[in-house]
Amino acid sequence: MLTLLALGIALLAFRYIPALDDARSLRADLESIVDQAESGGLDIDMATVDDLDRRLAAARTRLERLQALASGDLLIGLARALPPSSASVRGADELLAAGAHLLDAAGEGLTIGRRYVEIRDSHETDAGDSSALAQLVELLATTRSEADRAAGSVMQARSALAAVPEGAIGPISNLEESLSARIDRYAPMLDTYLDASQRVPAIFGWNGARRYLVLTQDPAELRPTGGFIGSYGIVSFERGEMTEHRFEDIVPLDYPFDYPRIEPPQQLADYLLGARQPWQLADANWSPDFPTSARDALRLYTNESGDTDIDGVLGITTHSIDEVLRLTGPVNVPAYNVTIESGETTLKALQLTRSAPPGEDRKAFLPAFADSLFGALFSLSSDSWAEVLSSAGTFRDGRLLLAWFTDPTEEAFAARAGLDGAVRQDPGDYVFPVDANVGPASKLNAWTSRTLDLSVDIDEFGNARHTLDVTWKNEVETPAGATYRDMDNVGGRILGMYFRLLVPLRSRVEEVSGGTMTPVTGPAAVDEEAGRTVIGTYVKVPAGPTTLRYRWTSPYAAENDAAEGSYRLTIQAQPGSLPGPLQLTIRVPNGASITAASPELVVNGGIATLDATFEHDLVLGLRYAP
Fold this sequence. Notes:
The protein has helices spanning 2-40, 46-72, 74-81, 83-125, 132-142, 144-162, 170-203, 251-254, 266-273, 290-305, 318-328, 345-351, 365-378, 385-390, 392-397, 408-416, 482-486, and strands spanning 210-218, 228-238, 241-249, 312-317, 331-333, 338-340, 402-405, 429-434, 448-458, 464-474, 495-503, 508-514, 525-529, 532-541, 544-554, 558-560, 565-571, 580-587, 593-597, 602-604, 607-614, 618-625. By secondary structure, the chain is of the alpha+beta class. The chain folds into three domains: 2-203, no CATH class; 210-416, Aminopeptidase, CATH 3.40.630; 429-625, Immunoglobulin-like. Strands 8, 11, 13, 14, 16, 17, 19 and 22 form an eight-stranded mixed beta sheet that branches. It has a seven-stranded mixed beta sheet with strand order 12-15-10-9-18-21-20, with no helix packed on it. A five-stranded mixed beta sheet has the order 3-2-1-4-7, sandwiched between helices.
């Protein structure tokens, strides 16, 4: 047996160890190729692509020599059969197979890169008559098969690496870990590209024109999905180019009520519309679940306009336009002799749409601004691709763009991209505070801050008892409110608020109290919507602070057993809402201590706290033990 072991080790050292050194050098070459591609980024040129192609071909030749050695050498074949060395040799075989698959994936990626440069350079040569969006759509549409093949090769590489046997020598194990780490880093990017290539071209009209209803929401008059729909738009795309865009004041569409009546939700009727007014497009976004509000908006728009040629609904706010202006730079609207910069959209849009001479449309500024904004956006060169793509996360996380499509596969894509604006269905505990500006209607949300103070006490059974203080501070009478007081047609100085709190199903409501003008002693309604219990309360918010207190218990929000417990809390942010202070305190059962927690939480024994600005969704978790 000792003789056999010595022979196996000798064969491995004599034949395969030098080959492993060659493989390590090959890995270094491949990493250098990747680094060169990354450094080129979106500015990569065809000369660099050609150089990468040559280097990749040389790496493939080197790998093929290693594969020929592994498959044809008699001594290596003997080492593969001997127990002392078989695990390492078979591991090396799998590494070579994985390397071949990864080279295939890299080759497909380089083909995509070459196509990108061709599209970019050809459009620049053609006098720049195509937008960056159209170029991106063309790239995605024409490289789908390459992305699919690359993803398949990466999957095969994963399988090969997973087959590396335990017990392989150190160099084998190290190479396996290194390659697996590379796959873990780049595979999600490839998956995202593949998913986008399958859906984005169709959404932007690659296979036929697409037409969308755009809800332009005013967060100064906050509603559940972003704001009052004071105007709406119709935009069309064909092969990535915008072929139609028009934006209209909502009033001529909604009034007079000469279309079939659709009954509004009861709370919307009770606190804003009254008994006579039907449900109309301006108030379509009553549900905090955007897919629900989008379907309602399409139904109401079709009912009022007769237009049935709509493929989806998009939701934006003036905050969304601020982010676009960050990309384009300030935009001038010549007809109004005004320039709008990022951060100014809400106020300037209000100022320029409050009044107009008799017989003229006071919202005429909006289409003029839209023309200038779209002109600036679609004239961005391909040099701006990196900045545009990097802003995608901001639009997603800030709920600056919401999308719903009539095609279920495209709607599923929007959900995967985080653009669907749905009420989240995360496991564990859940809180979603939702403001709605109702009667007396105003534009006071732009001058009103909101503070949340949430305390959570977990008992030994895993139930979570909550106390939430919501405080609005109406600054209409302060110096900051002078701009509001000087404008016409913005409403009075009292903010009418219908506040909804979405919590886990079967939560037990124990208290709703507060108010300043009229004491609140209980909820206006407790319903179910979008898989959540909804606690609705109406309160008037005059100048100064107004607070509501909620107490409720979420059943079995934490998971407990004899050894330890775990608690997860999701706090969802409302589109269009201004960032505001959030204080959170979580207490675990008496006698327990927190053993692990999300990095945002500060832990002290059995108490975790958070003092933050609430502007994005938060998902927090902790573990505790006796």
